[in-house]
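ingest -> validate -> predict -> emit
validate: passed (alphabet ok, no gaps, 163 aa)
predict: started
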Amino acid sequence: MSANEYEIAFVIPDLADPFDHRIARIEESMDVVVAGHGGLTVATVVTAGADAVAAGRRASAVLSSCGLPAERTYPDLVSRQDIADRLDVSRQAVGNWVRGERHAGHAFPAPINSVVGGVWLWGDIVDWLRGTGRDHDEPELEFPSLEDHARLDGFLMEERSLA
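emit:
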C-alpha cells in the first residue's frame, strides 16, 4: 500500500518560546506549524502514512521523541464562514451547498455538530470538493476522518497510561 500525505493537528504542551529548539527537531522529520489556538498550543504536521491513523501514530512518535508529546488530536473544524473564507466564495454559496441547492448529485457532508449553524471537518469538505470537481488549495493532502481522530485519541490515551 502506498503512503499518502496527511495533515494532522495535535495539542501539545505549551511553548513559552515560539523559537523553541524542539520545533526545529520536528522539522527534521516532517513539516510542522506550531500556533496558539484559544489557550492551546497546536502542532499541525504533514506526514506520510498508509492511512491517517498510521500517519498520526508516526507523527505522535516524532513529537514525543522531540520532547513535545501529543496530548490529543485537534480536529480542523470549520463553520460556513470558515469554508467561504478558505475557498474564496460567498457565505451564501456555502449556504446553498449545505441546503443542497447546488451539486444536488453529490450531497454536502453532514456537519459534525450543529452548534452555531453547523461545523464540519475540513477533510470532509475537501473530499466533497474533490467529488464535485471544484478547485481547492490542497489537492494532494489527505485529512483524518472523525473515526480516525477517535482512534488516534484512543492511542494517545493508551500511550499516556503506559508512561
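Residues 146-162 form the longest helix (17 residues).
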